[in-house]
Amino acid sequence: GDRQDNRISNLRLATKQQNNSNRSGVRGVWKSKHNTWISWISHKNERIYVGSFKCPLLARLAYEDKATELRGEFSAC
Fold first, then answer.
1. Which residue pairs from 70-76 have beta carbons closer than 8 angstroms and sit at least 24 positions apart in sequence?
2. How much is the average pLDDT of 51-70?
3. What is the dihedral of CA 51, 57, 61, 64, to 10 degrees?
4. How many Cβ atoms from other residues are within 10 Å of residue 62's Cβ?
5. pLDDT tens-digit profile of 1-53?
6. How far apart are CA 49 and CA 33, in angstroms?
7. pLDDT of residue 75
8. Where are the alpha helices (DSSP H) in the chain?
9. Is the pTM of this model over 0.70?
10. Angle 16-43-74 (CA atoms, 0-180°, nearest 5)?
11. Residue 75: closest CA among 42, 45, 50
12. Which residue from 13, 18, 41, 63 has the fewest beta carbons nearer than 10 Å?
């Protein structure tokens, strides 16, 4: 849980995808250096920018909307 402690005893096994999904705790949402929340989605090997938002909830909702638009019933938000 301590990002500054990279000792083996503090790390856990994870795939690259699992590790990347941990950035904000919300799928498709990352906190920027400027205190905004950025939403991205991958679709057909393409990374698509969804938008920049003032709070993680708005970023998450935008991600879910885009996932539904791109993937329909298979969006698995």
1. 70/41, 70/43, 71/43
2. 92
3. 90
4. 19
5. 566 788 888 777 877 755 654 455 567 888 888 889 999 998 888 999 999 99
6. 17
7. 67
8. 16-20, 56-71
9. no
10. 100
11. 42
12. 13
Residue with tokens 């083996």: 8
Distance CA 52, CA 56 (A): 10
Closest by CA to 31, choosing from 10, 7, 60, is: 60
Q: Which of 36, 38, 32, 39 has its CA nearest to residue 67?
A: 39
Q: Which residues contact 31 (CB under 8 A, 6 or more apart)?
A: 23, 24, 37, 38, 56
Token digits for 1? 């849980």
